[in-house]
Amino acid sequence: MEYDSTNPASAVALVGHASSGGLLSVPRIKLRLMVLTTLIVTLLTGLLFFLVGSVFESMVPALEQDLRWKVKSAALELSHSGDLGVLTRDSELLSRVTARYTDDSDILYIAFEDAQSALLFERGSSTGAPAWSEPNDVAENADAYAVWTPLDVEGMRVGLVRVVVSKARLLSGSQLYRRILWAGLGGATVALALAAMFVTLYIVPILRLTQGAFAELERTTAMALASTRSKGQFLANMSHEIRTPMNGVLGMVHLVQQTPLSHVQRGYIDVIAASARSLLTIVNDILDFSKLEADRYELDPRPCELRQVIEQTVALFEARAREKQLKLDLWFDDDVPQAVVVDGDRLRQVLSNLLSNAVKFTGRGSVSVSVSATQLDAEGSLSLRVRVADTGPGVPKSSEKRLFRAFSQVDGSSSRSHEGTGLGLAISKRLVELMGGTIGYSARDGGGSEFRFEVPVRLSAEVERGTDVPRRVDRFYAQHPVLVVDDNEVNQLVAMEILERFGLEVALVGGGQEAVDAVAQEEYSLVLMDCQMPGVDGYMATRLIREREGSGARLPIVACTAHALVEERRRVEEAGMDDYLSKPIEIEALVGVLARWLECSPVQSGASFARSIEATPAMRISGRPLKNVVAIAGERLPVLDASRKPSARVAEIFLKNTPVELVRLRDAAASDDRATLKSVAHKLKGSSGSIGAARLSAECHRLQVEAETMTDETLKSSLAAVERYYAQVRVELDRSVLEKVTT
Fold it and tell me: What is the distance between the alpha carbons of residues 636 and 728, in angstroms, rounded to a whole number?
């Protein structure tokens, strides 16, 4: 009987057929189990008999031949060694000749006779010996072998020797063979009896319980099918009720878009509109859930810009990711085309479901989306593969089978920490399969989840361009662990923010020895090494790393220093560093370093990529470095370089740490400790330059360079300028942070 998955009645019929005995009949199954057990025991017993018989069939002829050889060889040997004893009738000599056979259990009897057949010497007993045959011929009976050999001295017969060998070993082997066969038959009989008891006392009760369970299943299946139909009707009604206010939301958003708005407000409204449309699409899909169940859902494949569809979808989750302090990354392989024919809304919905779950369930770390394509044929058919990976808690092994079931959640309890209907993955699976693709899940090594789906698409020359969400800035679609070594916390954060926007994993350490230890414990693709640090500086740390590497793989180390002199570059090379970056780091130079040492594949060229980043407000921490700041009057420099305005996090760290350094600066001046003065000025110069505080950085640089030669008056004036410039920077930072919050 066949089961039709689209026909609920067939499920009931199948269950009824099983419970009524068509599939589950206790007597039939018991009989089959007994027959199967009998066959198995019979086969095993036959195999045992065959093996034992084969062994004995090969052993008996060899043993017989060995005993025949022993009786003949013993008689022949004694005829040569005992002839003198017979001739001289010396029984002691004959006793010594036969002594070596005393310990041989196979020798039953040895006797010497003279020419008149008078017995001269015997050892053992001839009882049970066979009748003697011709000289040197072996005679035998059921118990023994016997042979006699004449004794000749110089052609004259002086007597004879008789030898009898036992067949006890042959007899014991036959007895063992019979015992093994009887043991095998007995074991087979016991095995059959035990099998019958096992089936009767254990299997049959289980079968009866199962038969009852099938009867109960028939009843509950009918109830479940009725409940499913009610649930589908409820979802359809609720979806209609939700769609009505959603249309009102979209209408009002459209009206707001027609009013005068600032650039920032228009961006917010566009994201709201895109989110509302995405929500309405999901609601419509819930409405069509019954169509998916009945395989009556129809796709609407159209030409679209694939990368834009995916980028817009990912962009919807950036705000939520930032709120949870998650890193959200997107990578495209070079083989991913721009224009394809696919149902863009369905593709967007599947990716949205996977991203929503990834961001929802990931508490810390990152969520990454990678897109690749494989050509299937020469006519433009491609296989599009999308992977969504996160560093969340993952899915318990026991719940993996329920992932793509409708109304199923990993945590379905009323106290669960995340809300949801449990329909997202089920709908995604149906949609992907409807598009002719596959979807799956796997746990990541080290924790986290990875969902991936693969759908066929076709290349297209036409593109329908969406305008609902601004396109994201292109970035390097590669991920490498990078170690940033700097004793200045502000410099660390600035470098980390720049690198993370390239999709890189960043680790921070504050000293040279910590860098050496970090490289020994973890594998990094690149090290950005500050050269001037207290204790183990960047040069010494690089030498220690190179010594530990030996002749193995070489880790790229890039020097980061404010010095731009030729001598500094030579010193960097002598220390074993591979490349050079001037502080403050500029985007163009950093793009070149990453492209040289990390083999990244930018979507556009390094220069255009750098310009696009500088045009983005969120990336204004880049910009150009200060050059020859000593020669420029401090008052002519900007208080805060507009192209290097720091993030709120960097500004907070700068405002927290700088007052402490200013106190150290004043204390060093009061105690005339010019070395400490120079060191603190160097640190302040780096942190202020990183955030674009041009005047403050220039004055700190001057203080560092001239600390050894400054008079007390000049030093006092320079310290006053440093504090004055810092007060101005603090006001500017407070204002820029306030502007970011209000806009």
Answer: 14
| Torsion angle (degrees, nearest 10) of CA 550, 555, 558, 560 | -80
Task: Report the alpha-carbon distance of residue 108 to residue 115 in Å, rounded.
Answer: 23
**Residues 441 and 448: beta-carbon distance below 8 Å:** no
Identify the top-confidence range among 274-278, 471-475, 556-560, 627-631.
Answer: 556-560
CA–CA dist 238, 240 (Å, integer):
5
List the Cα angle 593/519/543 in 5-degree steps: 75
The Cα 30–Cα 23 span in angstroms is: 13
In this predicted model, which residue has the larger pLDDT, 8 or 366?
366
Whole-number Å distance between alpha carbons of 93 and 97: 6
Q: What secondary structure letter does DSSP report for 476?
A: B
* C-alpha span between 431 and 297 (Å, rounded): 9
Residues 6+ apart with CB under 8 A from 160: 112, 113, 117, 135, 148, 149, 150, 151
Distance CA 503, CA 480 (A): 8
330: left (phi over 0), alpha (psi -120 to 50) or beta: beta
DSSP-derived pairing of the beta strands 526-530 and 381-390: unpaired
Nearest by Cα to 473 from 351, 645, 614, 268: 614
Residue 214 has pLDDT above 90, yes or no: no
Could you tell me what percent of the chain has a pLDDT over 90?
7
Q: Which residues pair with 342 in a beta bridge?
A: 302
Which position has the token pair 């690749």?
A: 372
List the one residue out of 729, 702, 726 whose CA is nearest residue 714: 702
Q: End-to-end CA distance of the chain: give it in Å, rounded.
A: 69
Query: What is the C-alpha to C-alpha distance for residues 668 and 139, in angstroms, rounded to an integer?
Result: 122
Helices (H), 469-628: 489-500, 512-521, 538-549, 566-575, 587-597, 606-614
Task: Tell me, yes or no, if the pTM score tops 0.85.
Answer: no
User: Whole-angstrom Cα distance, residue 292 to residue 632?
Assistant: 71
SS3 labels along 625-682: CCCCHHHCCHHHCCCCCHHHCCCHHHHHHHHHHHHHHHHHHHHHHHCCCHHHHHHHHH
Three-state secondary structure call for residue 458: strand
Asked if residues 468 and 312 have their Cβ atoms less than 8 Å apart, the reply is yes
Q: What are the tens digits of pLDDT across the range 178-188?
A: 788 888 788 88
Inter-residue contact 111 to 132 (CB < 8 Å): no
Give the residue from 490, 511, 534 showing the smallest Cα distance to 676.
Answer: 534
Q: What is the 3-state secondary structure (H, E, C) of 258-286?
A: CCCCCHHHHHHHHHHHHHHHHHHHHHHHH
β pairing state of 339-342 and 144-153: unpaired
- Best CA proximity match to 476, nearest among 521, 441, 526: 526
Residue carrying the six token digits 């696009």: 612
- Checking if the pLDDT of 667 tops 80, the result is yes
Selection from 122, 123, 126, 101 nearest residue 112 by Cα? 122
Report yes or no: 687 and 704 within 8 Å, Cβ to Cβ. Answer: no
Confidence grade of residue 528 (pLDDT, cut at 50, 70, 90):
very high
Residue 330 near residue 411, CB atoms below 8 Å: no
Say if residues 593 and 562 touch (Cβ distance below 8 Å): no
pLDDT at 557 over 90: yes
